[in-house]
Design a protein that fits this description.
With 101 residues, the protein is mainly alpha-helical. 74% of the residues lie in helices and 0% in strands. Helix 1 packs antiparallel against helix 2. The longest helix is centred in the last third of the chain and has 36 residues. The radius of gyration is 15 Å and the shape is globular.
Length: 101
């Protein structure tokens, strides 16, 4: 379940809800928190990526190098949670009040 939570964070980034830096910070915090020892990466891995991104002043090239690494590790979980996550997002959107034009 811990890896699936990380996958949901990645999907939030993919939807534009989180920056790459925020994704890395939240994933690191989650992996670091007590009771979530099931994450396949230790928090230091996420924090190390965040440090490299910050050192490069948030260069998109660094982000571009880091994303495939995350996708390789969490791709299976992302594929598993994507349909349910998208369904939840669609349900949430359908319940939002419409905004007049």
């Amino acid at each position: 379940m811990a890896d699936q939570y990380i996958a949901c964070l990645f999907l939030r980034h993919e939807r534009g809800e989180l920056t790459w830096a925020t994704f890395l910070r939240l994933a690191g915090e989650f992996a670091d928190s007590d009771g979530y020892d099931g994450c396949s990466w230790e928090c230091e891995r996420f924090y190390g990526m965040l440090n490299r991104l910050e050192d490069a002043e948030y260069a998109s090239t660094v982000e571009g190098l880091q994303k495939p690494v995350v996708l390789k590790q969490f791709g299976t979980e992302i594929a598993i949670v994507r349909p349910e996550y998208e369904q939840l997002c669609a349900c949430r959107r359908s319940r939002l009040p419409s905004v007049p034009s």
